[in-house]
Every structure is written in C-alpha cells, then in structure tokens.
C-alpha cells in the first residue's frame, strides 16, 4: 500500500490551536461536479500560525483569507496546511466534489435520485477542508442550490430562513442552525420526496413541525416512524425531563446508507430500513427496530448533540448512553423482560465474541487507525451496560440527578466519559473510583461463584471470584467493581430476606475484589440462589447449578429475566454435554425432566406469550460458538438441530394446540399481538420439524395477511429444509422483486440457506434484478447473512466460503471500505477453527494484506488478526 496508515492514541489528545465559530456553506449541486464554498470565521487559540485542516477525496479550487487570494499553503493526501495565518480571520475555501462517483457513501453522495450526506465520524473532510474534529463547534449557515424540477426539496440543519429562484431552472434555500455543532453533525439532502407531516407541542408549549421524507410512493409506509418519533419526544420529556430545541425535526429515508441512521442536528438521515413499514412489507421485528432507532437518533439530540464528544475515543459517551436511553424507551413502551432478554443476547453473543477477538478494545478505546471501525458492539452495547450498571448502583432518582448535573456542566460543549462519571459521582455521592476501570479495561470478566450452607449457624456463603483473561490489546487486567444482583429462595419459592452482619442488605452486592465471600445470616434452610439477576453486569457467570435448581428457578424466580436465564443455563448444560457426546460418536440426549420444564413454561397461563417465546428460543450457533476456545461448527449445528427436533417431538401436542389457539384474524402492532405472533411462530419453528410440518408451513404462508407470518413461514421452510421452500421463495420473489427493501428478507433467506448448494445459489442470486453490491442493505442481507448466519456452509472444509468472502471483500475494499470492514469480522476469528480452516482463512487475510490500495479500515483489522 502507498502509505502505512498511522494510529492515533487517546493519550495524545491536544486542544485545537484554532477554532471556527461560524461557518457559511454554499453548495452548488451537480451530479459530478458540486462546488462547495466554505467561509469560516477562524479564531486563533494558540501561538501557532499554521492552520492544519483535514481534507481528502476532493479538489481544491481556491483559498482566500479576508477576501484576498492566499497561496501560502501545502496540500497533502490528508489535508491542507495554511501558513502565515494572520490570527483571527475569515477563511474562504472553494472545493469541488463528485457525489455521483462516491460509492463509499461518506461525505456528499447520491442515493438513488437524491443528494445526501454522511459526516460522522470523519466524512465532512470529504466535503471541504476543515477542522474536522468534534471539539470544534461552529454555528452553521447553509445555502443549497440545485435544479428545481429534480430537487424540489433542499434541506439542511436548523431553520429554513430564506429561499429563492436562480438561473437555468435552479432554486436555492438557506438554512441556519442556531446551535453550535461539530462538523460531523452537518447534513444536506436534496431530492424529490413524499412528505409525511405532523407536529408536536413540547411540555413548555412550543410547537415543533415534524416532517418525514420518503421516496415517492412510500407515504403509506411512514406512519409508524412518525408515531415512534412523537412517542420519543414525549418519553424524553417524561423520563429524562429533556425537551426538543428547534422548531422543526426532519427525517429523510434513503436507500443507500452504510449503517442504521444518523442524528444530524434537526435533519436525521435514515436507512430506509428504519423508516418504512406497513403490515405487508415489514415484520414485527422491523416495527420494533424502527421504534428503537427513531428513538435512538432523537435521544441523541441531548446525549450527543447538545453535549458532544471531545474526541472520538470518547464515542461511548454519546453512544453507550444513547443506547441505554433507547433500551429504556423500548422497555417502558413494551415488555421490559423481553427487551432485556434481547439486549442480553447481543452482549452474550456477538459482543462477548468481539471481546475475545483480535479487535478487542475497551468501551473507550486507546488506539484507533480508522474511527469507523470503532462503531462496535463494545462501544455501543457494552457501553450501554456500563451506563446501566451506574443506574443500578445509583438508582433511578440519583441517576437522573446525575444527568441533570451532567447537562448543567456540559451543555453546549464537547465532553469526556470522565466528565459523565464525575457528574454521576458528584450528584449521588456514590464512589465510582474503581468502577471507572470499565472504561479502560477490555475483555469479558469471568465471575465464578461457589456456595456453602451451614445448617448449624444458619448461614449461607457465596464466594465470588472474578478474572478477566488477557486480550490482544491488553495483557494486564485488574478486578472490576461489579454490581452483582442476587436473590435467595427457600424450597417453597419464598424470597429469603438478605442479612449480613446483623443488617438488612439490598440485592445488589458490590463485588470489588479478585475473590470475596459474602455471608448471609438467618437462612433457615439451604437456599437456591438466583445470581446475576437482570444480567446486572456484562460478565460470564459460572456456577455449578444442578438441573433441579435451574428447573426450580424457571418456575419460581420472581423476576422474569431470571426465569428465562435459568432456562438458558439449563439448555447450555445440555448443549455442552451433547456436543461432547456427538464429538465422541454418541447420541444427543435430553432428560425428560428438562422437557417437562419447557412444557411447564409453554402451558403457563400466567406468563406473557412474548416471554414464553423467548424461553423456547434456543441460543444461536454463534452464541454457542462463543463458549468454546476451539469451535466444532458441525457438532454445534448438529446438537442445536437435534435438541430442536427432540423438543418438537416431545411437545408436539402442546405446540400444536398453542399454535392454533393463537391465530389472529387481524394484524395490529399492539405489544400483546406482537407477543402472540412471536409465540405462535416459535411453535411453528418446532412443528416444522414434525410430520405435519410441511403442510402447516405452506398453509401459514398461503393464509398469511402480514409480513411477520409470511417470513416466519419462509424461515421455517428454510431452517427445516422443507420441500415447499423453493415454491415459497419463488412466489415471494415474483411478488416483491421490484422492492429491494422487501427483497432483503428474501436475500437473507438465501444467505442462511442450510442446503449444501447454498454458496452456488448465493452466487447466482447476485444476478437477481433486485440485488446490487453497491447497496449496503442488499450486501449485508445476502452476503452478510452467509458469513455470519450460515456457519455450516460458510465454514465448509473446502474453503469455498472463505474464498468467496475474500473476493467480495476485495471488491468492496475499493468501492465501499466501511461495508467491507463490517463483512470481514467473521474471518478475524480464524484462531477458533481447526488447523486446515485456519490456513484457508489466513490465505484470504494475507491476500487482502498484499493489496496495493488496501483501505485503512481493512488494514487495521487484517493486521490485528494476523498479529494475534
Ligand atoms: N452516530 C451514528 C453512527 C455513525 C457511524 C459512522 N460510521 C448513528 C448512531 O449511533 O446513532
Ligand atoms: Zn447513536
């Protein structure tokens, strides 16, 4: 490669030598040659007379200072250094960019017929030369000029202040954002849309216009997004006392987008996947995803925009906190237990896997080559768990006081993670000194618990040991402050009050040592402990539960999450023992008592259907793989399949009865209806493996009046390899091939096809009229699903899956490095596979490494993986 990419270190942070207080931007939009004029009011903050601006992938047309042409500058691959700066001044820079050729979807690009931008983390530097760092906050005024016919809507951040006609059928609109912001929150959109309009009156009585822009013809798919937005605005006022601060809030849905959505001030740009939904095109999961992402971006207005990050190492300051807020929003609106279960599945599955991979990093990374590589499950999801632990330690009231203090201190500024923790500490008086290690230490702690009951003393002791194994990025680990939530039950299922040293104690133990023992008094019989309730810390729990204890907890634990978790632990025991059986040539075996425990949950009339559905959902192949140092792909797949088949046979009468009883004539998205469909479709996923499965699945597809049930049927046909699979797939494709977003579900089914011919079919599918490798949603649905969700075929011993992945990643390296860098993740974990597979994967990594034009996104990951 031309230049070796350089790493940046958190410890090297330096305040900027110059800042920009005001920025006036003018965009003259053309497909191939857009001219950007940027007039900055520059303030000198140090003695330096050289202003170093960031910039790449554009051409510089002119530099002026205070209206005079300036030629004393140097242009490099990464920016522009302006020499002999006359102190405070007005700096004008004219650049030209090519939106149409911008396939990386960073900076200004074209999505379908519309212009749009994506600037976080460092995309603004592809628009103009600028101080593209989050601690430089300026007031933006933006004028957008474009053809009036093609681009009737010209949008940017803030309030629309002026508009007018220009020559040659063009027009212009001027926007002013009164809130100073870093460049990453800038946005521009120009296009022709259908608009859904509504408004919201804030609690202090201000009216806010709400506008959702969608592709023409999609208006009937925008309602749920609008309802979700209004719910978000209301919820943030009620729970966090936070009100919106502009007169208008706009959301634009675009088809070409590298991630989910972007919280640009007043003008969110969204992947259309997280806006568009109606009952015929979207599943319940899509609806819930839209609610969560709309909420997430809205909540960023305070946690992200009003208080932003000082530098990108602090990313979790806004992301961990905003994920926590969106999780709470979804939990307050829907089922708290089901939300918690799904969030915990993400941590225990892919986040733990990331911690154990060559990309392991703390939630606040210390070293970064490409910032886009750090929008990770660790920063987001584990970051949210860290906020949640503080919430657990402080309680809601003190936590909210901490939030208030945080805003009092930092509103309108760029802050650090340390600032956040200090505010929480100062507002509550809770000592978070040792807790701060969660920000700097990577890896997953393993917490091993043992217990002892003393009949004579009536005491019960829990000895808790914690150990975080070394990770690639960090060899030395220290004990963390772990909030460890427990409950003890007597044999009848009554809660035993917790008492230590003669005093009543709460459920949350403060575990701070490598090893410590908690002794509980007045325990009159040997209890069953419920440990790490609510998953009170992102750790791996080890406790030697008997089957009977787990079955007891499944029905007696007070807390729904703990019941689910007991079921998962029971399944885990059987999955592990059966993997060993299968590896030794034995058969899969499950005790009748275990089957009965699941039968009990299935038949319960006290539990919510949505919750029962979660209890009956087996852990994914990926999650199970994470339990092993050396993964036996086929044995795990075999065991998961056989457990499914066994439960299906043993419980077929009950499954079938419940399946029929939950039939709904009309589709609504009320939470209870979603829960009933979830349970019904889980039943179907088991019944698909029984004799009548083929008929039942076909009939559900035929009779379905909504996308949730349609996709559920197709998914069953896929996973159970039913004969009807092909005809259902064909029917669906005939119906939807004009709509890429709806076809994504079909592409995912092709990607996860368990058939041994899957890879050939996938290659052919790439010629489907609805597929384009240029569109990240399509690529993730088909190819991402194959790499991440089809373990047996992807890891086929022939190495064909790896070669295919290598080819695709090489192609995307040139066209869209961010997407390439997401796709490569499963290859980074090659050390977990057998020697032949390792060699085959390494071959692909080496071939990428040798590319002349290797993007720094891939450079960073490939090198780390090969170093490991
Ligand atoms: N802040 C954006 C993510 C930007 C990703 C840049 N590669 C969306 C979000 O977290 O809300
Ligand atoms: Zn976010």
TrEMBL record:
Leading EC class: hydrolase
Name the CDD domains on file: M1_APN
Q: Which reaction does it catalyse?
A: Release of an N-terminal amino acid, Xaa-|-Yaa- from a peptide, amide or arylamide. Xaa is preferably Ala, but may be most amino acids including Pro (slow action). When a terminal hydrophobic residue is followed by a prolyl residue, the two may be released as an intact Xaa-Pro dipeptide
| Keywords, ordered alphabetically | Aminopeptidase, Cell inner membrane, Cell membrane, Coiled coil, Hydrolase, Membrane, Metal-binding, Metalloprotease, Protease, Zinc
For the Aminopeptidase N-like N-terminal domain, which residue ranges apply? 25-185
Q: Which Pfam families does the protein's record reference?
A: DUF3458 (PF11940), DUF3458_C (PF17432), Peptidase_M1 (PF01433), Peptidase_M1_N (PF17900)
- For this entry, the protein name equals Aminopeptidase N
Q: What NCBIfam families has UniProt attached to this entry?
A: pepN_proteo
Q: Which organism is it from?
A: Vibrio amylolyticus
Question: In its UniProt record, which GO terms are filed under biological process?
Answer: proteolysis
The family line of this record is: Belongs to the peptidase M1 family.
Record SUPFAM superfamilies: Leukotriene A4 hydrolase N-terminal domain, Metalloproteases ('zincins'), catalytic domain
Supply one GO molecular-function term. metallopeptidase activity
| Domain Peptidase M1 alanyl aminopeptidase Ig-like fold: residue ranges | 443-544
Q: Which cofactors are required for activity?
A: Zn(2+)
Q: Where in the cell is it found?
A: Cell inner membrane
Enzyme Commission designation: 3.4.11.2
Role summary: Aminopeptidase N is involved in the degradation of intracellular peptides generated by protein breakdown during normal growth as well as in response to nutrient starvation.
């Amino acid at each position: 490669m031309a230049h070796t990419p350089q790493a940046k270190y958190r410890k090297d942070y330096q305040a900027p030598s110059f800042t920009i207080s005001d920025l006036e931007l003018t965009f003259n939009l053309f497909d191939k040659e857009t001219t950007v004029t940027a007039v900055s009011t520059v303030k000198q903050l140090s003695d330096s007379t050289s202003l170093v601006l960031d910039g790449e992938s554009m051409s510089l047309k002119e530099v002026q200072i205070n209206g005079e042409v300036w030629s004393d500058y140097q242009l490099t691959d990464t920016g522009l250094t302006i020499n002999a700066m006359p102190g405070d001044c007005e700096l004008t820079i004219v650049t030209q960019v090519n939106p149409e050729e911008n396939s990386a979807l960073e900076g200004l690009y074209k999505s379908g017929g519309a212009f749009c931008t994506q600037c976080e983390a460092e995309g603004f530097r592809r628009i103009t030369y600028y101080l593209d760092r989050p601690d430089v906050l300026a007031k933006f005024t933006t004028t957008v000029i474009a053809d009036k016919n093609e681009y009737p809507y010209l949008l940017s951040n803030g309030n629309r202040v002026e508009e007018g006609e220009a020559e040659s059928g063009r027009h212009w609109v001027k926007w002013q954002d009164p809130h100073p912001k870093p460049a990453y929150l800038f946005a521009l959109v120009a296009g022709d849309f259908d608009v859904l309009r509504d408004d919201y009156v804030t609690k202090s009585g201000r009216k806010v216009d709400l506008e959702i822009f969608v592709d023409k013809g999609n208006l009937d798919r925008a309602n749920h997004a609008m309802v979700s937005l209004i719910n978000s605005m209301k919820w943030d006022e009620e729970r966090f006392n936070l009100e919106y601060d502009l007169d208008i809030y706009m959301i634009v849905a675009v088809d070409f987008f590298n991630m989910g959505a972007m919280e640009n001030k007043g003008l969110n740009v969204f992947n259309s996947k997280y806006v568009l939904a109606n009952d015929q095109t979207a599943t319940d999961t899509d609806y819930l995803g839209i609610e969560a992402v709309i909420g997430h971006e809205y909540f960023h207005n305070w946690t992200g925009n009003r208080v932003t990050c000082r530098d990108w190492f602090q990313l979790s300051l806004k992301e961990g906190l905003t994920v926590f807020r969106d999780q709470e929003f979804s939990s307050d609106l829907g089922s708290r237990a089901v939300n918690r279960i799904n969030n915990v599945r993400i941590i225990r599955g892919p986040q733990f896997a990331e911690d154990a991979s060559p990309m392991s990093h703390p939630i606040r990374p210390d070293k970064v080559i490409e910032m886009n590589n750090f929008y990770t499950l660790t920063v987001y999801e584990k970051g949210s768990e860290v906020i949640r632990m503080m919430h657990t330690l402080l309680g809601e009231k003190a936590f909210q006081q901490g939030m208030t203090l945080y805003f009092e201190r930092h509103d309108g500024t760029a802050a650090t993670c340390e600032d956040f923790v200090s505010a929480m500490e100062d507002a509550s008086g809770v000592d978070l000194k040792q807790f701060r290690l969660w920000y700097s230490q990577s890896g997953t702690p393993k917490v091993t618990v043992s217990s002892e009951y003393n009949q004579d003393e009536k005491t019960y002791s829990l000895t808790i040991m914690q150990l975080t194994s070394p990770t690639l990025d960090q060899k030395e680990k220290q004990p963390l402050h772990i909030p460890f939530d427990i409950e003890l039950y007597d044999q009848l299922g009554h809660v035993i009050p917790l008492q230590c040293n003669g005093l009543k104690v709460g459920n949350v133990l403060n575990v701070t040592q490598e090893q410590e023992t908690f002794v509980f008094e007045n325990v009159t019989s040997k209890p069953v402990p419920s440990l790490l309730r609510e998953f009170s810390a992102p750790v791996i729990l080890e406790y030697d539960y008997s089957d009977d204890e787990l079955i007891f907890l499944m029905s007696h634990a007070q807390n729904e999450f703990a019941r689910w978790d007991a079921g998962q632990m029971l399944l885990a025991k059987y999955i592990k023992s059966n993997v060993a059986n299968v590896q030794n040539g034995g058969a899969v075996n499950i005790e009748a008592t275990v089957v009965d425990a699941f039968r009990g949950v299935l038949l319960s009339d006290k539990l919510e259907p949505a919750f029962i559905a979660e209890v009956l959902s087996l852990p994914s192949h990926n999650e199970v793989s994470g339990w092993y140092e050396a993964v036996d792909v086929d044995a795990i797949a075999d065991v998961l399949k056989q457990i499914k088949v066994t439960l299906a046979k043993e419980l077929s009468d009950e499954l079938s009865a419940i399946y029929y009883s939950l039939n709904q004539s009309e589709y609504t998205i009320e939470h209870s209806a979603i829960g009933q469909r979830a349970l019904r479709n889980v039943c179907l996923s088991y019944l698909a493996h029984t004799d009548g499965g083929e008929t039942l699945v076909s009939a559900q597809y035929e009779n379905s009046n909504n996308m949730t049930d349609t996709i559920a049927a197709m998914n069953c046909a896929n996973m159970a390899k039913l004969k009807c699979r092909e005809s259902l797939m064909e029917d669906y494709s005939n119906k939807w091939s004009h709509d890429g977003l709806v076809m994504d579900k079909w592409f995912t089914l092709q990607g996860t096809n368990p058939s041994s011919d899957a890879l050939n079919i996938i290659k052919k599918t790439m010629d489907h009229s609805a597929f384009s490798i240029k569109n990240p949603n399509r690529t993730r649905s088909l190819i991402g699903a194959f790499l991440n969700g089809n373990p047996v075929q992807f890891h086929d011993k022939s190495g064909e899956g790896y070669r295919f992945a290598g080819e695709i990643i090489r192609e995307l390296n040139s066209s869209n490095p961010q997407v390439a860098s997401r796709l490569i993740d499963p290859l980074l974990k090659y050390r977990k596979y057998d020697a032949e597979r390792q060699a085959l994967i390494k071959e692909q990594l080496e071939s990428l490494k040798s590319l002349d034009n290797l993007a720094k996104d891939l450079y960073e990951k490939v090198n780390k993986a090969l170093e490991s």
